Amino acid sequence: MNSNLISLLLAKDLKRELRSKEIFLSSFLFSLIILCIFYFAATSSNVDFAKLPNTALWICIAFSGTIGLHRTHQAELVNGCYKALMLAPRAAGNLYLAKYVANFSLLGLMSLLLLPLISLFFNLKFDTQIAMAVPGLLLGVSGFVAIGTLTVVITANTRISDILFPVIHLPLVVPVLIAAVNCTQIAFQGKFSWTGIQILCILNLVFLSLGYLLYEFLLEE
Amino acid sequence: MKQPSLGFDGFLMVVLIALMQVALIWALVVAPADATQGDVQRIFYFHLGSIWPGFVAFFYVLYGSIRYLMSRDAKWDRRSYASGQVGLAFCTIVLVTGPIWAKPTWGVWWAWDARLTSTLLMWLIFLGYIMLRDYIDDQAKRERLSAVLGIIGASMVPFVYFSTRWFEVQHPKPVVMGDADSGIKDPNMIWALMLALAAFTVLYVVLWRRGTELAEADADLSDLRLRLSALEDEA
After folding, report:
1. Chain B interface test: which of A217, A220, A221 (most B C-beta within 10 Å)
2. Were both Cys, which of A106, A130, A133, B212 would link to B82 (CB 3.0–4.6 Å)?
3. Interface test with B, best of A150, A153, A168 (most B CBs within 10 A)
4. Residue B60 class from Cβ within 10 Å (0-12 exposed, 13-18 middle, 19+ buried)?
5. B192 domain-assigned
């Protein structure tokens, strides 16, 4: 693993995001809007909104994360930035890891910032219920990003990338989502799910290995 | 006049028809009705019979995609594509026969448990694998990206099988490689299941060979069109 390349690319992506704030802000605001719609949809169906913090959290992450990942890659295509990255003398696997770390930093931070909102809206204890959910949340987001970093490049080569990306990406990440949703649900009940964490670790390992090995084939022109 | 020989495909077709007939008779007549579920359980032979070649098809997509990326020989892409199409058809049969069994047994057509959801997602993944090809114009790129997606998609298949053990679900425990308290015990039921599995496996092979032939004919036709258009340009 080339840590220098990873840190350089991470710094580039974070600097661009700090300047534009477009991905982080739009994803976070989109999550807030989803929470409001979710509230109206739940209460109009006579569902107790207070019992759905886990559902709300993962719906926000799945939708805003998909938009965020797609936007991140689209931003790379401007001015041929991605082509320049492809030309750089580097191992493709390292480039994948760098993109993964950058995407995970953005989406991970956004999902962590959602936790205080979830705690506030759903009256959850921050030091126990919310704190216990953090490992499952971050591992879930990591798996989500590990596959997303691959699929966003696959679909970027199609004529309808903006539509095809969620269609291809979301079914692939559902194994991670099922495990992560179970994990955070147990955490919101005040317990810790070791089984869920173990499954998430295995899925992350599988998806990151696949990404590391396969990214090379996505960079050919 | 010399009669054309049946060939391997003809032989497979004869075996398939014979196996299908025997499997049907065994599942509907010879095997006893389930003590608790009654006759509706008989659909299980075809339900499980379809998911098995579905898994085989998706593992072949994995194998063929790896072979394509290693060799860049288009024949592996065509074989993987044909396998993905056939796998998608078998997955559709599973998703149709499942609710037919679920309605009288569970009282609902669909239950959102991990196994059912995962099977639906497996169907969606391979639909995505088939769809992706329609939206990439460049042939080499299409083959390469489909192979990568095929490998990622097929890696989810083990999760589908083991999902019933990881989470508490409504779906019955696996019959094959299941726990001691799961599975069928009556010898005639086991025979019906084995015959259905054999028939659907041969059906997969027949359909996959036809699909590969079609994909190869399609590729030949595209080559001929290109050559014809080049000749017309020269003229």
Report:
1. A217
2. B212
3. A168
4. buried
5. yes
Facing A168 at nearest CB: one of B128, B156, B159: B128
Query: Per-residue confidence at A14, pLDDT binned at 50, 70, 90?
Result: confident
Name the residue ranges covered by the structural domains of chain A.
36-218
Alpha-carbon distance values, B32 to A150, B100, B191 (Å): 50, 19, 11
Residue B233 covered by a domain: no
Closest among A151, A147, A156, A153 to A208, alpha carbons compared: A147
Q: Around Cβ B47, how many Cβ atoms within 10 Å?
A: 19
Q: Nearest CA to CA, how far is B67 from chain A (Å)?
A: 13
Chain B contacts to A (CB-CB under 8 A): 69, 114, 117-118, 121, 124-125, 128, 131-132, 135-137, 141, 144-145, 147-149, 151-153, 155-156, 159, 163, 166-167
B83 domain residue, yes or no: yes
Q: Round to whole Å and give the CA distance between B218 and A178.
A: 40
Phi, psi values for residue A15, rounded to 5°: -60, -45
Residues of chain A found within 8 Å of residue B145, distances taken between Cβ atoms: 154, 157, 218
Of the candidates A164, A167, A199, which has its C-beta nearest B166's C-beta? Answer: A199
Q: Residue B63 belongs to what domain range? A: 44-219
Q: What would the pLDDT profile of B31-75 be if each residue is shown by its tens digit?
A: 888 777 777 788 888 888 888 898 899 899 999 999 999 999 999
Q: Which of B148, B157, B161, B164 to mutate to test the interface with A (most CBs of A within 10 A)?
A: B148
Residue B64 and residue B83 in contact, taking contact as beta carbons nearer than 8 Å: yes
CB contact under 8 A, A150 and B124: no
The tens place of each residue's pLDDT in chain B, 235 residues long, gives 455 556 888 899 999 999 999 999 988 888 888 777 777 788 888 888 888 898 899 899 999 999 999 999 999 999 999 999 999 999 999 999 888 888 888 888 888 766 777 788 888 988 999 999 889 988 889 999 999 999 998 887 676 566 555 665 555 655 554 455 555 677 888 888 899 999 999 999 999 999 999 999 998 998 899 899 999 888 7
Domain count, chain B: 1
Residue B8 lies in a domain: no
